[in-house]
Amino acid sequence: NLTRAGGEGFSPVNDDGLLVSGGKLMYGLLSKKSVGATSSGIIHIIFNEKGPEVAMKFFNGAQTVVNYWLLHNGFSIGIGDTIPDRGTIKQIEDAVNKQKEDVAVITQSATANELEPLPGMNVRETFESKVSKALNKARDDAGTVTEKSLKDLNNATQMALSGSKGSTINISQMTAVVGQQSVEGKRIPFGFKYRTLPHFTKDDYSPESRGFVENSYLRGLTPTEFFFHAMAGREGFIDTAVKTAE
Q: Which GO BP terms sit in this record (predicted)?
């Protein structure tokens, strides 16, 4: 008999690909990619090669097996699935702080009239573009760190990888950083005179003032972060309502 090297528990999530031979699953995992409503998926192939009756039997059989498993094992998700370890928290903070330092340098060069405009942009547009790029990188880097730290048996990760609900972005926002909030594709604009909210000084172009949410949903948002998040959320709701009406 073959044995697997290494003491870690094996997870089929890491299998690269999917192979069914002689009606047996040799390796791989049946996820939304293979069982979902996609062309060249397993159901598509069964229908084309074996006909509608066999495809129907597969549907019924797969559903019975999954329901039986859930009945005996259950599947749940809790706050514990979103709590990172101390090392991960430190890496997330480092990733965010590094990009915030870069933003401070960009802001300093713009204030001193030393910022070179990018092709087709003026200095203000260049500044906004570079700052947005840095802050998006902060969110992405923090998300990558989080993904690596969560185990394969983490319930939130299992949901995202199987394609049943949620995505890796949802997990990183719950665990690491919510990230930059935007309205009409730009950072939060100055709604008051020279500032976004009365809680900030005038002409404050810092990430916090312009809608960068440094906290995760787990840690909780500050009042100003919550307000900026509500602004971006409102835009999403309106878009959905307008599209429905159309």
A: DNA-templated transcription
